[in-house]
Amino acid sequence: MISTIALVFTAAAVMAVALLVAVGRLRLGPARQQDEDRAPIAVFDENGDITAGSLGRVRFEVAPRGYRMDEVDAVIAALVHQLRSQEDCMPNSDQPEQVNRDSHSDDFGASPPKNIDSVRGEVCVELSVDIDADADKVWAALVNWPSQGEWMLGTRVWVTKGDGASTGSQIAAFSGIGKLGFLDPMTITDWQPPHSCTVLHTGTLVRGTGTMSVKPRQGGGSTFTWQETLELPWGWVGRLGWALGERVFIIGVRKSLDKFAAWVRTCE
Questions:
Q1: Domain residue spans in the chain?
Q2: What pLDDT score was predicted for residue 95?
Q3: What CATH number does domain 114-266 carry, 1.20.272.10, 3.40.50.880, 2.102.10.10, 3.30.530.20?
Q4: What is the pTM (predicted TM-score) of this model?
Q5: Could you give phi then psi for residue 236, rounded to 5 degrees?
Q6: Is pLDDT larger for residue 90 or for residue 176?
């Protein structure tokens, strides 16, 4: 579902790199002596504490030699997830009020994304679809990971660790066309069958959490809700990419959900 926005981010990043090279802000040659005088990476907030917000803003400079960035990003994503879980359990009267967009439904039958934190570059997307099938049938179809390619646009999913049906299991999704695309590794952090599954995105491009939930609908059938809290990559470049691709992204997700609803009705 998130292949469209990933391609938008990539295009925006290419333009940004070209711009930085043109104005001399990005060096592609050997490192200079003044690199030794660079300020250290800031991992503390203004109060001198390490929080989910301060850790989530950490970005490392790309160098010819160093650690694998996907492994570094996976560790940071896990730490951010744990810190946020702890912070959610602690009352904080000083926490700024969340700023949300108008919550009315748009032309595609879904609430528009909400801007949760413009500083961290986080957005929350939530869409739902009613399905003429009971919740157990919808859940079974939903968590059949290899079959998600039947309804999720341009994406195939498979289990990489565990049984794919328990907390701690890992799955991966490749979104794109042919060999052109990106890998989205995920870890299941909450498993509540047949009601909800939450995953932590641990990749370099897509980071954040996603929750898929199924609820019985009064009078028959059920409602499938798909929610993502995405940490936009690359600072202002990512925010620009989201601004450009947000509408297309919502259309793609909506089409996937509608296709899922139709596909479930054909499953035995």
A1: 114-266
A2: 42
A3: 3.30.530.20
A4: 0.59
A5: -65, -25
A6: 176
Token code pair at residue 249 = 């992204």
87: its two tokens: 């912070």
For residue 187 the two structure tokens come to 């870890």
Token pair of 21, please?
A: 């090279």
pLDDT tens-digit readout, 38-53: 555 666 667 766 676 7
Q: Which amino acid is at 65?
A: R
The token pair at 40 is 């250290």
Tokens of 267: 């499953």
| DSSP sequence for the chain | --HHHHHHHHHHHHHHHHHHHHTT-S--SSPPGGGGGPPPPP-S-TTS---HHHHHT--PPP-SSSS-HHHHHHHHHHHHHHHHHHHHTS--TTSPPP-----S--TTSSPPPEEEETTTTEEEEEEEEEESS-HHHHHHHHT-GGGGGGTSTTEEEEEEES-SSSTT-EEEEEEEETTEEEEEEEEEEEEETTTEEEEEEESSS-EEEEEEEEEE-TTS-EEEEEEEEEE-SSTHHHHHHHHHHHHHHHHHHHHHHHHHHHHHHH--
Q: Does 112 score more than 60 pLDDT?
A: no
